[in-house]
Amino acid sequence: MIQTIAFYLFATLVIASGALTIVARNPVHSVLWLILAFFNAAGLMVLVGAEFIAMLLVIVYVGAVAVLFLFVVMMLDIDFSELRAGFGRYLPFGVLLVIVLAVEIIFAVGAWNAGGIGLGAATSPTPEGMSNIQALGTLLYTRYLYIFEAAGLVLLVAMIGAIVLTHRTRSGVRAQNISRQNQRRPQDAVRNVSDQPSGKGVTL
Amino acid sequence: MSTLSSIALTAPELLLSVGAIALLLWCAWGGDTATRAISIASVALLTAAAFLLLGPAGQGGPGFGGLYQADAFAAFAKLLIYIACAVGIIIAPRFFADGGSMRAEYPVLILLSAVGMGMMVSAGDLLTLYVGLELQSLAAYVLASFMRRDTRSAEAGLKYFVLGALASGILLYGISLVYGFTGTTDFGGIAAVFGTPAEEPVRLGRLFGLVFVFAGLAFKISAVPFHMWTPDVYEGAPTPVTALFATAQKVAAMALLLRVAIEAMGPATEEWRQIVIFCALASTILGGVAAIGQSNIKRLLAYSSINNVGFALFGLVPGTALGVSAVLTYMAVYVAMTLGAFLVVLQMRNARGAPVETIASLSGLSRTRPALAAAMAMFMFSLAGIPPLFGFWPKFLVFDAVVDIGLWPLAMIGIATSVIGAYYYLRIIKTMYFDEPAEAFAPGGSRVEGGLIAVAAVVVSPLGYLMIGPLGLLALNAAKALF
Asked: Which pTM was predicted?
């Protein structure tokens, strides 16, 4: 019973926030709606029993991708009236894409109802009495430890590469010096100017 | 097999990655002033890793449930890779000194790239293959654009990155097909499935996977028709990095191709043989013909590497232990010849000390720098495979393996194509010995570089034939590990 209610709640909200992502006029609102959609999709994943994917959705999509989107959108200087000018021209193409996607979804649901793909069952069924996070973790840290660590090295190389290729020491940058900030005392920074006549500027 | 004993098998990779991370911290705190010390430490790490190959890492068998193969084949390839990487680090400081772009991260990136190459050659699973390949490639993209103020270097890096990503995509698509149609990513498992007959659609699916995997790997060894990136990247990348690409990376990718072809797809030899024959012929012919018009020595050496990869591929055609050992011998001698040639290219500097790369600047080198000219002439003769020099021997072995399975016509065409290659190698020798002297090069580099050139020259000289015994034995042992 509770699952049913939760499912309809999440599903409705996913669809509603998905739709609002598209129709919202302000791109910042769009991204916020998108974050809501991700959250609800994560909820759906939990209901299915794929907790790990749910967590990934929240951590990766909400935590990183969506926030990045938000930054980008906020930095864009968008002329909103111009943005909507071509709407009529692109409408047929958009509708076509919508139809294609809808047909795909219907096919996918049909296939799922007919018994699913069943790849997981054929080659690697989830072990009994284990949640799928545990099952994935067990595999990653035992059997695939070697590749898991190597994937970490790949990310390290990507990081080194980004720094090596873009970092340069610039002159005239006012970098924050935390120890200097902490050493600064109130008497160095504050001066009492109570005897200052009103209407005249303060000389610092 | 417990995890601990598996970790013991990966000792060289473990040492190199932990060492690279420690050196990275040293870079972060020490800054570029520590570059020299970090370079020396990196070479020491590579040497230590090479010595670790004598232990269980050399013949310990499979580890991590078959993900990792510590056999004689991997040890042979890793030895070549570590030598080439060490040379790549040693020759760098003087080259980068002019532009002031030698950074402490250079040796660290090479170490991480060496880890990736080590993973590639000891891959026992498609997953290891891919992660190793990406680790190696990602470091290579950064190294190619290491001189970021130089537009050619940046262009080389970008081009390499885009095309490399495309090739990775093709390879990954092939891997997904192979996994889909065989149900496993383990090389042994794939071989078992490929060995069993199947219905037509399944067979076709496997064949598609095989073709895509081979296409992706052919890009990595830069065999024609997947060679387009090679001349541009080799020309634009800093010369020490190019030397690394032409040697260590080639050895790693070639060893990976051998392993996939024999260990995973051995039962499908009939299917991949035509691909390998086509790539071998196309590489030797196009690598020879396209090199003729080049005026830049680095571009010429890029075509030379395409040409040589073609010859090495002939050894894979039979799919026998004899053929694989011929390929391994070929790669060993090729590393010596190519490193030597690139070391000579590094000596090409005009009076102001700036590097020059035109073939015309080599004119009359025999009169201004006779020793250097003699060394270059030996490398060129050897790359052309002219008999008294050691470069002839692996070519002979490769075609011997082809003849051994009765493919006489292929061997004859292959030998005929080597004549095309000989033309442009001889042209360089003619430029050095018979043309009017051009502006003399700046006085020679460090004694270390001179010594390395001398070592490479001795290896490719007729004295190299003394090594036939041990080298042949090592290569045959390594090849047998695959069967």
From this structure: 0.84
